[in-house]
Structures are given as structure tokens and as C-alpha cells.
Amino acid sequence: MTALSQAELLRKSADATTAPGPSGDDPHRAGERRHVLQIAYACHPEQSMETRIGWRRALAAATRHEVTVLHGGPEHSELLAEATEKHGLSDRLRFVAVEPGPLGGLLNQSATTFYLSYRLWHRTALQTAKRLHAERAFDLVHQTTFCGFREPGHGWKLGAPFVWGPIGGTQAYPLAYLGQMGPRCAWIELCRNAINWWQLRLGRRVRRAAREAEVVVAATQQAARDIRPLRGADMPVQLETALDTPILEPKPPRSASEPFKILWAGRLRSWKTLPLLLKALPLLPADVDWRLRVLGVGSSERAWRRVAERLGVADRIEWLGWPEYRETLPHYREADAFAFTSMRDTSGTGLLEALAAGTPIVGVDHQGAADIMTTQCATPVPVGRPQDTIRGFATAITRLARDPDEWRRLSEGARARAESYRWDDQTSLLLDWYDQAWRRASSSAAAAQRASTAPNQDKLASITSSPHPSVG
To answer: CB-based contacts of 435: which residues, under 8 Å, 6+ apart?
Structure first.
């Protein structure tokens, strides 16, 4: 555990007993205000899921603590300052941009070299954090983004209690589904699986950060199982993202005269495996009149359009691209079902948007999606063999299209399930992680202090109890 130095923690504890806070009690007890550093490479109120995570965690921490956020994207500094002012938090929340540097900026231009750029950014962020820490010590450090476990950063080296997470990205691509993509993409997934295996078992930086952190939060049950050996203990599990939008009113009944509207949303990249859904559509019976909207952009679009043409379903599919985030939300409300096909995702923001809109989910039953979906809001589709998954999508869509009572039950269940994923409800969880980290660091430092003083006390006791103590 890299906590505050023993001397510093004990000094703070001593100060707390002699210098009462506003309430006359220990100013470092649970619930009191502290000086927090958050490391959030991605931080923006609207841009993407990852940037919204960084922004929302900063807002949550600032409800109680004084927070400094180190972020990438220096071009967003003015926007973040304005948003902070709008929320009335400018007295306790500030953002410090960390420049990537010439080499980091160059490496950031390619997806292939992005993680090298990201690692360099963390080195620069550590130097910035050390400078700020020297000016005024931080009571706690929290790395919030990116969610992926692969890059733990260096925040734990500051000597303050360290919180990491929620983290995910540990899930492997199921080997049986490699045939759903081209050879190049299949090779990339095999390499990623191997890198995950190596980093989770042999990666020194990941293991060190996981062990030094006072609190590690897993984003999914799958991530918790994968990370547990690094910690040797259980950890809290909390989805890394949450709802930015309100939960909508109940949907009106479906009209039997209208086509059954299916929505698919996400990056058009190979691991999202949209072809699993495309191959299910020709299996739908003739009485199920359907339409599919595809919301997203990416390198697989051309290949997937060809798949749709080959299957004879292209004329019922609308490719919408990817508008601004707020403009995507009405599509969830208009859909009769949301289809989720990804073979590797920590979670999926689209799943939460569907729940909030009261739209039943038909989704693959694994990884983070399995944590979100229940039989009250979704029809889970098995992940074993691709042909079983394809038939599972066809069966689930057919049932929803034919059975209005089942559709209504899942629609109402979706809105109820969405209540579990409000950002506002996660604030107390984050504050609890901070209190827990402080208590653990303080306890460890006190135990170490007792251990270091015990030999001297034993020696003193033996001298004073001797019948003939030596003199001179």
C-alpha cells in the first residue's frame, strides 16, 4: 500500500485530535472535507462515454471535497471552467490541463500507438501532480479515466491514499466468434486476448498499482473475477458509467399495424459483431414486419453493408451515422427493441439509454451486459456458438414482435431497472470509497508505527525490570 507516509498520517491524526474542525470533531473523519486529486485523461460533459465519466466523477467528489482534476485535451479547459461555474462549484473544483508533449501528440494520431501516447501523458501528469502536491498536499488520489485496467498511471506514487476505478477492459473476445470477422481483425483480437492474459498475470505496473491502492473498484463482475488475484481480496463492483438523461414516461402501446423497430447503436468496429443480428433477420417469420436502424460510424460499415446486401435485408436497414450525443437519444425512445451484439465490452452506454427510454433489450448474455440485463427488462441471448446466438436473436425478436403483453412487461421493467443507474445515486458510493481509502491508510500507518516502536519498548522494559541494571 502506498499511503501517506507514516509520519504524515500520524501527524494528521494528531492534529485532528488537537485542532477540531467546524463541528468540533476530527476533520479527517468520514464525511469531512479533504483535498482530492483526480486523474482523468478523458473529461468533458458531452463528448463521449469516457469523457462524461471523468466529468461526472469530478462533480460527485466536489459535492463534499476540494477537487483538482488533471485532464488531457487542453482545448477543453475553457469549457470545463465555464461548466464548473455553471454548477456553482468554482470554489472547490478546478481543472488543470496536462499537455501531451511533442512525442505524445505525434503518437496520439494513430490508434496503433495511442497507448504509448497515453503512457507518456501519465508520466507528464505525475510530474504535474508532484508539483501541485508539494505546493499543497493532497489527502487522496483517484484515477477515474480511462476505465481500462491496462494503464494504471502513477497516481499511487504520490504517497497519498489511492483509489483506482471503476476499472474494466479485462474481458477476452470469445474464440468461437472469431469467424464473424476478417482475418486481420481476428488476429488483432487474438493479440489483445494474449496481452490481457499477460498483463493480468505478469504485468508489473498493473499488479503494483492494484496492490498499492487502498480501494480498487471493478466495473463488472467479470472484471472483479479477473482482478481479484492481483489484490488477494474481494472489491466493490460498480458500473463505470451511468445515466445522463432522465427516465422517460411509460411508452404507449405498440401499434400492430406498424413495423417492429429495432435499434442497434455503437462503433462500427469488428468486435461489436453486428453481423450476428444481420444474420438473424432473415430467420424472422413472414408475419414479423421489421425495420432496423444502425446508429454509429466506423471502419466496418462498408463490410457490414455488403453482408446486409448478401443476406437480402439491406432494403429494411437505415444507416444513420453518429450525430451529437443528445441527438441520438430520440432513437432509443422510438425503437421497439434495442439489440446489443458486442463480443467484448466492459459495459454499454446504449444499454442504459434503452432502459431509460423504456425500450426492451435483446442482448448477448456475457461480460458487463450480463450485469445490466435482467429477465425483467431484457431477453438475454446465449453466448456459446455463433449459430446459437443468431437463432437466439431471431427467437427473441419474434417473441417481442408477436406478444404485446411480453413487450409491455419488459418495457416497464426497463424503466424500473434504469433507476439503478442514475449518476446522482453514485455520488454517495464515490464518497464512501474515499472514506474507506482514508481509514485503511490511517490504520496501516498506525499499525506500522506500533510495530516500529515495539522493539524499543521491549528493550526499555527489559532494562527497567533487570535486578542489576548496568551503569555508565
So the answer is: 30, 31
CA count, 13 A, side-chain hemisphere, 250: 10
Summarised one tens digit per residue, pLDDT across range 75-95 is 888 999 999 999 999 999 999
Find out whether 377 and 361 touch, Cβ atoms under 8 Å: yes
The pLDDT tens digits for 102-158 are: 766 666 666 677 888 899 999 999 999 999 999 999 999 999 999 999 999 999 999
**Cα dihedral sign for 453, 456, 459, 463?**
negative
Q: Which three cell numbers stand for residue 79?
A: 469549457
Q: Residue for cell digits 463480443?
A: 343
State whether residue 68 is helix, strand or coil. strand
User: Beta-carbon neighbour count of residue 21 at 10 Å?
Assistant: 13
Neighbouring residues of 260: CB distance < 8 A, sequence distance ≥ 6: 254, 288, 289, 290, 291, 336, 337, 397, 400, 401
Query: Which residues make Cβ contacts (< 8 Å) with residue 432, sequence separation at least 6?
Result: none
Of all helices (H) and strands (E), which one includes residue 456? helix 423-465
d(CA 306, CA 312): 10
Q: Which residues contact 129 (CB under 8 A, 6 or more apart)?
A: 37, 39, 70, 138, 141, 154, 155, 158
Cis amide linkage into residue 260, ω under 30° from 0 = no
Cβ-based neighbours of 419, under 8 Å, separated by 6 or more? 247
The predicted structure's pLDDT at residue 245: 85
CB 60 within 8 A of CB 426: yes
Alpha helices in 336-420 (DSSP H): 349-357, 367-372, 386-402, 404-418
